[in-house]
Amino acid sequence: MEDIDMTEGQRPTIKTGFGPGKGKGGVYRTLPMPARYAINAVLVVLFLVIGEAMIGNGVVSRYQTGVLEQIGIYIIMAVSLNIATGYLGQLPLGHAGFMSVGGYSCALFIMKNMDKFGLTLATMSKVSPASVMLFALGLLFGGVCAAICGLLIGIPALRLKGDYLAIITLGFAEIIRVVMLNIDSVLGFELTGGAKGLTGIPGYTNFLNTFIVVAIVIFFIHTMMKSRHGRAIIAIRDNEIAAESTGVNTTYYKTLAFVASAFFAGIGGGLYAGCIGVMAPAKFGFMKSVEILVMVVLGGMGSMLGSVLSATVLTILPEALRAFADYRMVVYSIVLILVMIFRPQGLLGSYDFSMSRVIERIMNRDFPWKKKREAKEEVSADAER
Amino acid sequence: MTFLTQVLNGLQLGSIYALVALGYTMVYGIILLLNFAHGDIIMVGAYISWIVMSKLGMSPVLAVILSVLGCTALGVLIDKVAYAPLREAPRLSILITAIGVSYFLENGSQLVFGADAKVVPDYTSLSTFQVGGMTFSFTAILTIAVTAISTIVLNLLVQKTKLGKAMRAVSEDMGAARLMGINVNTTISFTFAVGSALAGIGAVLYSMAYHQATPTMGIMLGTKAFVAAVLGGIGSIPGAVIGGLVVGFAEVAVSAIGLSVWQDAVVFLLLIIVLIVKPTGILGRPMTEKV
Q: Which domain holds residue A198?
């Protein structure tokens, strides 16, 4: 009995609030949840305001703004694929398929409904209550369409093991591509525009709404992964049989993660359509899926920060290194192989950055270098004994 | 007459898929790896044929030999460089490495040879021959015959030889096989060599039929062959052949009724349907899960 008491005593008590702490072994002060959310919200707003001001001033050129939008879109794509690859531990190879479903359906939804909202091609890209409303509805519609596809493909595919899932999703993306390419000629009306693509999409994507959506998506995925459902998904990744025997409904949670992944990919696709202005089936081939996968794998499977960073770097690099465009893909593939051999968990592993944690460490004067020194002192004390 | 031609076309295409599917099935059977690079090995084989015949102007016989040897060497090299360090790693890592290798081969050959299609010249001057008033395509008959012979030889190799026995043992239980004194790494390399040699033969037969080499030709060919292997039941040699023929016939049938643009979609739809109805494929053994 006493043994238990002793272990209890050794653990530092965790206290929520800003009160004074006693340092090592004493009270470890943490931030209350609302304060954590407030800090993150302020940071996001700060980023949006500064970004918007710089674009307004012309510090960031039109071209650079376009690149920024693409970064936002690829962040969404990488973070959404991370749900299925990093957190669920499956390997879907058809992420571009969900992206194209979302893109086409969002663009078509907005184009068909512009009249009903009293908008034209020009006013759609301006901020007004009607355009914001239609934009949000369009993105949701794109996301839901992609999620339905994810459900349709996920139910049969997830009953099978990893490799089958990879090949089924790859096949599915190919089916989507073929359908987008040929559906017009089969049905006999104008929908996707076939091989020449869907043109005349209003440019409804801009820096501000892209990154607002990015923040919302990241927030959703983060909270989902910290919740009971997220823990169930991570348990399946770590050991499916163990998870099942502790009462996790594996089929349900696998499908949930897969559908969520498809949903956010659809939203990313919707933004992509508005950013590029033309949707063509050829853009969403196997290569695109692999490109998104490289972002997730490189950054670290299961790390939000990793996905965000690698999506950012891998979107800027090809723009910055246009002269080496031919070598880009070769370098990509070599890097992919090397990372897998020497650091299979990705560059950041499952490490995630948390602003609140940093602040808490400062509050408690708990710095990594201090810990090292303490550990050293302990070791030397042990040696003396 | 046209019906017979279509059947022959289906058999020819199906035979090529079957040969490639055999390579997939063998590698998958032994280390449970979906070797994404397998299709790209075929692409390299087609380019070797093109270099030997078009660039160096040497004889087609040499082209065939070099293609098969080149593919074999490439397969073993890929295993040694990319897959062997990851034998104990999680499956996902090896799978992603395989994608990386595939990506590397595609983009590497695009860098070296350019994105445009290279025309692989005829291997033989024989194109058609007539039997009983009917015209047969020589390459079709050759393809079918080569596939049949390869399958029989492979089956003998796996069932009757000592190495074949080792392969079966490793695929059954790698740890136990190692304890029995089987050199697992040699066996795996040998499997890669056999699978890639089959891919080399497939490359020759493919370029005989389609006369083209492009950097991305391996993706679709490889994916469909994998579909064939899964359809037939992965890990099973007769299953791969049956799956290959099914996929070949399905494609030819879809083209014959004038829907050739949909043929890729139909193949994958077929896969999804078969996997829903019978997840282990036509001849697959039911898999039990071990804790």
A: 34-287
